[in-house]
Design a protein that fits this description.
34 helices; 683 residues; 67% helix
């Protein structure tokens, strides 16, 4: 009868209790009540950061009720109807108490529970009085339990009605200390380490990993709050997150828990191997979902796709045809995390289109003045550690910058302004693999910020990053260097400068030849980005890219890697020298085979682009091969149904080329080599 709802699937201090059904048997109801009361008593051994005495009193009173309930169960007593009604109300209250205790003892929510101690104490008071109200209508005189137990229940009822559950004095002092520190951040004052330590000690936060749990929890809460129209608590939560972020940087000298994180990664990898990645795709778009939501039929879709479907007037489930009455959708948080883990393990970049607008707004600004001041203070602290710290302190600072710059635009701005980038570039030459790894990862995350790109280039960063790409101490470092070049290549000037470094393209191609899929992926997207600068075209060809890319088409089982390789080949084929190199590998039949069998829509599109360029630049020799392929025209005509899509336009151009060739051949004319691409074949 009871159903556990984990804190990650509901908002904190929300209690989705369910009333027992009317047909429930008294025995089942009692068994469920005993289960709930036992669970509540089990929280006695948990740590509570705030409302310690209030919660202990609540658990004590529920413990007395447990004795009463267990005696009824043991003696198998018959219950009057009025008792069943009373116990049904009690059941709802006990469910809510379990939710409240779960929140109050949640390992990552200690700071939030302290700052909401008044709200929590109010909840405690309401729930214990609801317990008394449920027992008020209980006909104790009709229940055959011992007089001693009856007296205890009556005493509990009286105490529950009188109890006040006010905010405890120690909680009030600790929360006041936090508010003073946040006020200091607003005024750009650096807090005293002793004041910070006193708060963390009160909360029982004594390690880096415990501090990090608080930050992750607060970040998730902020994300949920942004989905609300009012966003009332964004500033409050942002300030708390800024407070904990500064504490993690300034107070936690040892990063613990890394070994456990490695075990978690291994476990996650094993779990994902048991799942079908096709289940991560939206049934409508067939693309990996980034914001999966579930509709009332129980099926999950990408948020933007299903909402577009429903708003278009479709009142059935796309997958089952069942009638859909409500347009309400529920975020599938568990599936979203699995998809994110799948992408992380397999090196697949994933965006979040469903949250794009509010995420950008959320991360451009700090969220509050206190959060802004805290981040600036943390950035200056880390810059100082990089400049004058010990080797261990520099390594730790690079790791903190790596984390802070990962998802937050405002953080990247502060870290760049604080002068961390030149020090991180210097750290790339470290002979310590950990320091080098954290430095290049931090630079990768910072390279997503426009000003950071400029600072890197002005401080010789392009050459240093290419050097790490070639000679990084670990494969992961080389992978991260390739990804950093991809972001730097978004600036045309840097695409030119990177291309002029003689070792850049050979190093990227060497990465493609390695065994790790992430290395291949990062190298391919970097080359693709660099090819948007015209002079890099011949450099890629001169580095021997085409045979390596064609080999990847046959050797890789990863659909996304095949698609990325086709994208680079399609770009190279746009010029005659690229076409010659591709045809020289004998890849034409392979491309036709991929076109007819690929499940990837982008892969099919790049195949068509590639074939079109090969026809235009390769002439009748290429076209004569294509017109003899029995499956090609069917594949091309199937794309024409997608009006105005890029794939449809390319397919239409290729069909025109093939038809013109057949008409010339039928008329007996000698078919000349095709001219360079005309406006008819622009895509």
């Amino acid at each position: 009868m009871t159903r556990k709802v984990h804190a990650s699937s509901r908002r904190m201090l929300a209690f989705p209790a369910v009333h027992p059904c009317d047909a429930v048997s008294p025995a089942a109801l009692l068994a469920s009540l005993v289960h709930l009361a036992t669970a509540i008593c089990g929280y006695k051994s948990r740590f509570f950061a705030a409302n310690k005495r209030n919660i202990r009193e609540l658990i004590r009173q529920i413990g007395i009720l447990l004795v009463f309930l267990e005696e009824i169960v043991e003696r198998r007593l018959d219950l009057p109807v009025s008792a069943v009604l009373s116990f049904s109300d009690l059941h709802v209250t006990l469910q809510m108490i379990v939710f409240l205790l779960e929140d109050c003892s949640f390992a990552g929510a200690r700071l939030m529970m302290l700052m909401k101690s008044e709200s929590v104490s109010n909840h405690l008071r309401v729930l214990i009085r609801a317990t008394a109200t449920a027992l008020d209508v209980l006909p104790l005189e009709l229940i055959d339990v011992s007089d001693e137990v009856k007296e205890l229940v009556q005493l509990t009822m009286r105490q529950a009605r009188r109890v006040r559950f006010e905010v405890e004095a120690d909680d009030r002092r600790a929360s006041k200390d936090v508010l003073l520190i946040l006020d200091g951040f607003e005024n750009e004052a650096v807090p005293d380490r002793g004041d910070l330590r006193r708060v963390l000690d009160y909360l029982g936060i004594r390690s880096w990993s415990e501090c990090n749990k608080e930050i992750k929890f607060l970040d998730a809460e902020i994300g949920s709050e942004w989905s609300n129209t009012e966003k009332r608590e964004v500033a409050f939560l942002s300030g708390l997150m800024g407070f904990m972020s500064y504490c993690r940087c300034a107070l936690c000298d040892v990063v613990d828990g890394e070994f456990g994180q490695q075990l978690d990664k291994i476990y996650i990898s094993e779990v994902l191997n048991c799942l079908n990645p096709d289940d991560f795709r939206c049934p409508i778009t067939l693309e990996l979902m980034t914001d999966p939501v579930t509709i009332e039929t129980g099926h999950t879709y990408e948020r933007s796709s299903i909402l577009k479907w429903l708003r278009a007037g479709n009142s059935i489930c796309p997958k089952t045809g069942e009638k859909v009455v409500s347009m309400d959708v529920v975020p599938n948080i568990a599936l979203r995390r699995l998809i994110q883990q799948y992408c992380s393990v397999n090196g697949i970049p994933i965006s979040e289109p469903g949250h794009k607008n509010h995420d950008i707004t959320r991360t451009v600004h700090a969220g509050s003045l206190a959060a802004e001041g805290a981040m600036k203070a943390a950035a200056n602290f880390l810059a100082g550690r990089l400049a004058a710290g010990t080797s261990w302190e520099r390594n730790k600072a690079a790791y903190e910058i790596r984390l802070l710059a990962k998802t937050n635009i405002f953080n990247r701005h502060c870290l760049a302004e604080a002068g961390t980038i030149p020090h991180l570039l210097h750290l790339l030459s470290s002979r310590d693999s950990s320091s080098q790894r954290h430095a290049i990862a931090a630079l990768l995350n910072l390279s997503k910020h426009s000003k950071s790109k400029t600072i890197m280039a002005e401080n010789g960063g392009l050459e240093l990053i290419v050097d790490v790409l070639r000679k990084g101490l670990k494969m992961e470092v080389r992978e991260l260097a390739a990804a950093t070049l991809y972001y730097l290549a978004s600036v045309e000037e840097y695409r030119k400068l990177i291309g002029e470094i003689p070792e850049a393209f050979p190093a990227l191609l060497e990465l493609i030849k390695t065994r790790t899929d992430r290395a291949k992926k990062n190298a391919l997207v970097s080359i693709f980005g660099l090819l948007t600068f015209p002079d890099n075209h011949w450099r890629v060809l001169a580095s021997g890219a085409v045979p390596i890319l064609v080999n990847l088409l046959t050797s890789s089982e990863r659909e996304d890697l095949v698609t990325d390789s086709l994208a680079v080949l399609a770009t190279l084929a746009e010029k005659p020298d690229g076409t010659i190199a591709i045809l020289g590998t004998g890849a034409l039949h392979l491309i036709l085979q991929i076109l007819s069998s690929s499940p990837s829509r982008p892969g099919i599109e790049y195949c068509v682009s590639l074939l079109l360029s090969l026809c235009i630049n390769g002439g009748k020799e290429v076209v004569s091969v294509l017109v003899r392929n029995p499956s090609l025209m069917g594949a091309l005509y199937s794309l024409l149904a997608e009006d105005n899509s890029r794939a449809s336009k390319k397919a239409r151009s290729l069909i025109r080329v093939l038809h013109e060739f057949c008409e010339r051949r039928a008329s007996g004319l000698v078919t000349p080599a095709f001219p360079q691409e005309t406006s008819d074949y622009v895509w």
